[in-house]
Amino acid sequence: MKITKIPEDKKQYLDILLLGDEQESMIETYLDRGDLFALYDDDLKTVCVVTKETETAHEIKNIATREEYQGKGYGSLMLNYVIDHYKDKCAALYVGTGNTERTLSFYRKNGFEYSHTVKDFFTKHYDHVIVDDGVPLRDMIYLKREYGGK
Hints:
By secondary structure, the protein is an alpha+beta fold. The chain has one domain: Aminopeptidase (3-Layer(aba) Sandwich). The chain is built from five helices and nine strands. The chain has helices at about 15-20, 25-30, 75-85, 100-110, 120-125, and strands at about 1-5, 35-40, 45-50, 55-65, 90-95, 115-120, 130, 135, 140-145. The strands form two sheets. A seven-stranded mixed beta sheet has the order 1-2-3-4-5-9-6, sandwiched between helices. A two-stranded antiparallel ribbon has the order 7-8. It is globular. The N and C termini lie far apart (about 30 Å).
């Protein structure tokens, strides 16, 4: 297994990025300014995009695993890699997600805690209803993981 930072030609990963954020125009708002990581285990399994939002905060904008590899731990491996990678680069790592228990518990078990809610985010920023785990998404739930140092 290998995780690599992808410096250019990031759009070649659009098919898998769309699994984590299903509107291309939204991905375009952060892809070029973000760090893109790809996890390979023989072939591509998982990607993640992280952006610098302030001098002290970075945000996971997208993390996605190919459907046939979901539930096999690749998302957790990537998340833990990103957590470790940014520990000396910021005071807090944020992630915004929908209000579904499966997704929220994934981040909570990796040390993220509730930060804040952005009301109506999904209904205002997407041109169609986003459904996760059978739940139509409305508000963006932000979680954060704080680092002790910076």
